[in-house]
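pinned: reference chain
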Amino acid sequence: MRLRRFIFRALEWIVAGALIAVPAGAQQAPGHPLGPKFEQYLTREVHHELVTLPFYTIFDNLAYSVNGATVTLLGQVTQPVLKEDAEKAVRRIEGVEKVDDKIEVLPVSPNDDQIRRAEFRAIYGDPALQRYALGALPPIHIIVKNGHVTLEGAVANEMDKNIAGIRANGVSGVFSVTNNLQIAP
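pinned: its C-alpha cells
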C-alpha cells in the first residue's frame, strides 16, 4: 500500500511538471532518481515526524540530514525510547530506503536532571524569553551532559540569543555553556 501511494505521488509530480527534465548528456542531481523535489518532500516529512514524537521535549535535540533516499538522524536524547521512536517514525516514511541512526542517548544523572530544571527556570523565566515558552515545543532546547550545557534551536534576534546564554551561564553547578542558538529569519 505504501509503495502504491509513493508511485502515485511520483506520477503526480511528473504530470504536474514538478520534475525537471535533464538535458541529454547532463547529470541529474545526485542522491535519488527523482532529484531535489524528492529530497524536499523527504525533508518536510522527516521534520514533521520528528517534531510530533510524543516523548520529544526541550531537553532533547533531534536533527537530521537527507541525502537521496537515505536519512541520517543526529542529536541527543534523554530517553532511549525517543531514539527508537524517531528511527521507527522515519523508516515508515514513503521513499526512505535507509535510516542511519546516530542519535546519542545522554547518560542518566540526577545532577544533570537538576541542572535541566534549573536551566529551564532560568531561561524561560526571564521576561524577555517568556514568549518562547508558549508553544507546544519551545524552540530553545537545553541539552545537559555531565554538567555541560548546550543550547540548541532558534530565537528571533541576537539579543535573545545573548540573554539565553547569560541566563544559562548563571545556573550553579554548570561546568560550561555552549550557545548554538540560531537567529531565525
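why pinned: Helices lie at 2-16, 36-51, 80-91, 110-124, 158-169. The domain at 2-105 is CATH 3.30.1340.30 (Histidine-containing Protein; Chain: A;).
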